[in-house]
Amino acid sequence: MDNDSIMLEELGTSVILMQQRYRNAPLADWPDIQGKLQEAMAQYVLYQAFLLKQGTISTAQDIAAMQDIKKEIDQAAETQKLVAAISRFAVFIASKVI
Questions:
Q1: What is the pTM of this model?
Q2: How far apart are the C-alpha atoms of 83 and 73, rounded to whole Å?
């Protein structure tokens, strides 16, 4: 499997994880999470489109960074930590499609 395929898998898994964490959060916290989650998902779509145009763009370091972000999302015990991890996901993706 090439780096871009691995990255797409990591990103997709992270998006699903973010959505699950959002749905499991208290309803009162949904507004705090929703905007950042929508931004992250939009960046994910941009990454996929950019990848189609550019070909190979993911490095081993990118994959390692994404795996760290996914761990942050998974381990976020508080809404603010989850929002921060989701924001980090969006910023990371945005830095790849510039």
A1: 0.90
A2: 9
